[in-house]
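Journal club side-thread
Mid-discussion, someone asked how the predicted structure for our own chain would compare to the paper's figures. Pasting it here so we can look after the session.
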Amino acid sequence: MTDRQLTIDLFSDKVGQTWTMNEPEAPPIELTLIEVEPLRNYAKLAREPFSLLFTTRGDFVLPQRIYGLRHATLGAMELFLVPIGREGDVTTYQSLFN
């Protein structure tokens, strides 16, 4: 999957689906894709910019960095996740593609 260009079309029909963190020496953590949003293409890039929002449940917040994730259909990929909010035991993370 990492050889393919990640586009909004790959993710747009995956809202509500789960990714599993695939990190060595760490327990699996499930992330749910809750939003796929196009962004303005100010730089007129070939790939339209977009944003992904994921949530996790638990008493933890993952630090901002690149994580190995696995999806049942898309397979393994690496995404840079940034925590952007927390409400109760739900943390929201964003991944941007320019």
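Post-session note: The chain has a mean pLDDT of 92.
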